[in-house]
């Protein structure tokens, strides 16, 4: 079970976070739209995937709602200058698409790793 969960974590959390960081730090020659929003999309996807993996790929609406409210709240706090940064409505759109993408792809990964995400917790 551990190997498949490690594979799932690598594909859906570590790889998107790493790719987002590389794009953000090293992609000087790409359009500002891609440099500013694609890493956010990858990080939001990884965040949603982490929540789904923690809940054994069962969609827990309460946690997904908390995640979305936190992301939107953070952008509002930036907009109101409560926290450093620039509040951006595009970020909220990107987060929404990424969270939705993670939930949509959840069925694929749940099916791929189905026997490892069963309710049975025995090794």
Describe the structure.
The protein is mostly helical and 123 residues long. The protein has one domain. 74% of the residues lie in helices and 0% in strands. The protein has four helices and no strands. It has helices spanning 2-26, 32-54, 61-79, 89-112. It is globular. 20% of the residues are buried.
Structural topology:
Elements: H1 2-26, H2 32-54, H3 61-79, H4 89-112
List keywords for this structure.
123 residues; mainly alpha; 4 helices; globular
Summarize the structure.
This protein is mainly alpha-helical and 123 residues long. 74% of the residues lie in helices and 0% in strands.
Secondary-structure-derived class? mainly alpha
The Rg value, from CA coordinates, equals 16 Å
How many domains, in number, for the residues? Answer: 1
What value does the average pLDDT take?
88
Query: What's the total count of β strands?
Result: 0
Tally of separate helices: 4
The unreliable regions are none
Looking at the chains present, what oligomeric state does this protein adopt?
single chain
Helix coverage percent = over 70%
Order of helices and strands: HHHH
Overall spatial form = globular
Query: Could you give a short account of the major beta sheet?
Result: none
What portion of residues belong to β-strands?
under 5%
Give the N-terminus to C-terminus distance in angstroms.
7 Å
